[in-house]
Here is the input.
Amino acid sequence: MRSLVMPMLLIQLAAAAATPLAANITLDGCERKCGEVDVPYPFGTSYGCHRRGFKVICDRAYSPPKLFLGGDGAGLEVLGISVQNRTVRVRATIWSFAADNTSDVVVKIIPANLEPYVLSTDRNSLVIVGCGFRASARTTVSSLQLQGDAVIASCAPSCTVNNQQKHQQPNLCEGNGCCEAAIPTGLSSLSIHFSWLDTNAATVRAPWMTPNVSVLAVEQEWWRETPDIAFKIWLLSSGHVTGLVIPVVLDWTVGQSSCTAAETLPEFGCVSKNSECLNSTSSAYGYVCRCNDGYDGNPYVPDGCQGSRRNHLTAGVLVSIGIGIGLFFLLLGLAATFGTRRLNIRKAKKMREYFFKQNHGLLLRQLVDKDIAKRMIFSLEELEEATNKFDEARVLGDGGHGTVYKGILSNQRVVAIKKSRAVVQKEIDEFINEVAILSQINHRNIVRLFGCCLETEVPLLVYEFISNGTLYAHLHVDDPKKPLVWKNRLRIAFEVASSLAYLHSAATTSVVHRDIKTTNILLDDQLVANISDFGASRGISIDQAVVTTGIKGTHGYLDPEYFYTGRLTEKSDVYSYGVILVELLTRKKPSVYISPEGLSLVAHFIMLLNQDKLSEILDEQVAEEGEDEAKQVAAIAAKCLRLKGQNRPTMRNVEMRLQRLQGSDIDISGVEEHLAELGGPAYVGGNGEAGYNYSSRQYSMEEEILLSASLER
Here is the structure.
C-alpha cells in the first residue's frame, strides 16, 4: 500500500491544477476586513496600507465594527467596497425640511474631504418625499463638471387619500407622495427651493403623511426593490427612519488622469501582472485597473490577478502526472482483490462518523441524557426502510425547512420524517435548534419529536404523524360547505394559545416560535391542533427579556415591530397569533388579501372593528353560528395586533380569556371594554411626541402603520 502514496500525491496535484490560486486583496500586513466589510487595496485603515485619498477608519466602538470613509473618523459609513465595479456603497444622509421653509437651501451630498469619490449617475436617483409644495433643485457652482444654477429636478407631488389609492406602479415615484429625478454627472451638492401650495395644503392629507419634506440621494436598485417603494415612502414621510440603512453608491478612480499619462508616473496604480489600465466610463474622471480575461483578483496589489494553476504547470510535471496516474491504476488493479472489502467497510464507518460529527451529534448528546439519546437516535437504514428509500410517493409536503415524508417503522408506528432541503451550515444549525427545543417540550398541542438520524449528510428528524393536514387547508377549501364550524375554530384558537403560553412561560427555557401561521398548525382526526416546524424558533433564557436577531417569519404574519427593529420577544408570537385569529374569523388569507381600499387584511379588520362594522368582514358561517362570541374574539385579536409589543397581552392572558369564553355565556359588554382599552371605537390616539423635527401628530403610531397599508403593494 505504501507504493500508492506517490501516485496519490500526483493525482492531488492534478486536481489542484484546475483550482484557482488564492488572490491577495490587500498589501502584506494590512487589515483585510472591518466588521462585515472587506477592505481591499487601494483602501486601507493604517499608514502604508492605502493610496492617497483612500484612507478609511475602522471604528471598533461599534459591535460589529463599522467602516467609515475619510481619515478624520467623521465620514460616511461604508456598507461595501467593489474593486471590480470601482464603487463604494455608503449609508445615505437624509435632509429634512420643515413646512413653509421658502429659503434656498444648499445640500452637500458628498463632503469636500472625499476627493476621489463622485456620486454615481447610473446607480443613484435624487428622491424628494412629501406633498403640498413645489420643489426646484439646481446645481451649485461647487459641483464638479457642472455649470452652476442648472435645474436638475422640479416637481409638485400630491398625497391626498384619493391619490394614494390610485398608485398604478408601486415601484415608481410619479408625484404621489414623492418624486424621483436622475442625477447629473459630477453632482456633489445642490440648491433646493420650496414653494408651498395653498390649494394642495387645503386638501385632505393622508393621516400618516407629515407636512415636512425629506430629500436624499439613494441607490436605485435598493429604492425600487421589494418590499415595495410605498412602504419606504411611508417610513420617510412619518419620520420612522432611525436605524434604517439607506444606501447610496459612489464611483471612484485610482487617479485623475488618462491611462496614457498615468503609465509614465511612478505612482501608476495597475501594479499586478496580468492587469490592464482603462479610462473610466463612470461618473468619476480618471483611470481604473482590471485583471485580464481569464484572471481574477485585485489589480492594484502585486500578483493580485490570479488565473488557473494549470497555466503554471510545466510540461514535465504534466508528463509525471500522467505516468503517476497510469501507475496508480495498475497498482490499484493488483490490490483490488485483497483490499476492496476492507476498504469498503472502513469507508462506510468513516463516513458515518464524519456525518455524525458534522450534524452536531456530540452536541445532541450533551442536550439529552444517555437513556433518552439511545431512544431518539435512528439509523439511516431504518429510516430508508420506513420510507421505501424516500420514495416520492411518500412525500407529505414541503415546509420552509425541508421535505416531509410519511414513514412506517418496524414496530408499525406511523411517523413523519423531515429531510432538509440543502447541505449548508444554516440548515444544520436550524436542525440542531429544532432538536434542542423539541427535546425539552412536552405538550399535547405541540408535535412530538421521536428522534433523529445523524448518519447522513442531510439531517433527518422523526416526528409523530398528524393525519388530517393543516389548519390552512381546512380553512381555505374551495367548497364553502366544508370549512370548520365556529365551535371547532374557537377550540383550535384556544389550543394554539395554550401551546404558545406553554412555550413562553412553562417550558424549561422560554421559546419564541417566530413562524406561527395556519400552515404550521396541524390537525389530527379529532381536529385537535398541533404546532409544528420549530426550525426558526429561538430560546430566550430567564434573565433575558429580548434578543436581537435576523428577521425570520412569513409575510402577513410577521410582527412589524420585530421586522423594523430586529428585537425578538415573546410578543412577536402574540402578533402572529392575532393574525391567525383574524384568519379564523374571516377565512381570508393574510399574505395575499387586499381590500378595495388597498388595505391589508389586518388593517381592514381593525378599521371595520373600530367602526362597528365587523359583520362586513366576518365569514358567513361565523356570523351565523357565533357572531356574539366572534366579537369578543375580534377584540382579543385587536389587542394582539397592537403595534408596540409591550401593549400586547401575554399568551397566558389570551389563553385564560378564551377559556372563559368557551365555558361561559356570551357577554357582549366585554367587547366595549376591550375596545375602550384600545382607545375607543374611533381608535384615536393621543398626541405622540414627534421626533425627527416633526410637529406633534394627531394620530398614534398604531394608526400610522394601519393607515400606511392603504398604499398599494
